[in-house]
Every structure is written in C-alpha cells, then in structure tokens.
Design a protein that fits this description.
The protein is an all-alpha fold and 89 residues long. It is built from 3 helices and no strands. The chain is elongated and about 65 Å long.
C-alpha cells in the first residue's frame, strides 16, 4: 500500500463526510438564522428557544435526505471493498 493510496482513501472519506453532513448543517444554520431574526424582532432573549426548532429541522432533513446519504455511504464502502485487491497487491 503506497502513501498515495492512503492519501486518496483519506481524502475520499473526508469529502464523503463533508458531503453527507452538509444538508444537516445547512438545515441547522437556516433554522438558527430564522429563529435569531425572530428573537431580534420580538426582543425575546431566550437561548433555549432555538434548540427545539433546530432539532426538528435536522430530524426532518435526515428523513428527507437519509436515503441519499445511505446510498452515498454504501457506494463508497462498496468501492473501497472492491479496491482492496488492487491496493494490497
């Protein structure tokens, strides 16, 4: 196994992690922004107010994007397992 192969595998894993986590981060970011604007407009200074909407938004995003995420992960793992003979040998 060459250092180049290790770097390629690591780079692919990091890219996949970023790609899979992006929808959840974006949902939390947008929800937090909306709640912050609402709090600023109504002058409600409750820090726990944004927790439940963010949790719901992440859960809904996970339900909607979950099959896509699973497909990406299984495709990556399948490619990784199929490349084992070429990496070792």
């Amino acid at each position: 196994m060459t250092p180049t192969a290790v770097i390629d595998i690591g780079r692919g894993a990091v890219e996949l992690t970023l790609l899979i986590s992006a929808p959840l981060f974006l949902a939390a970011l947008v929800t937090g922004l909306v709640i912050s604007v609402f709090q600023a407009a109504t002058q409600i200074n409750e820090s726990t107010l944004s927790f439940v909407p963010k949790l719901v938004a992440i859960f809904v995003t996970l339900i909607l994007a979950g099959p896509w995420m699973i497909t990406l992960m299984t495709d990556y793992m399948r490619r990784l397992y199929e490349s084992i003979p070429g990496i070792i040998g």
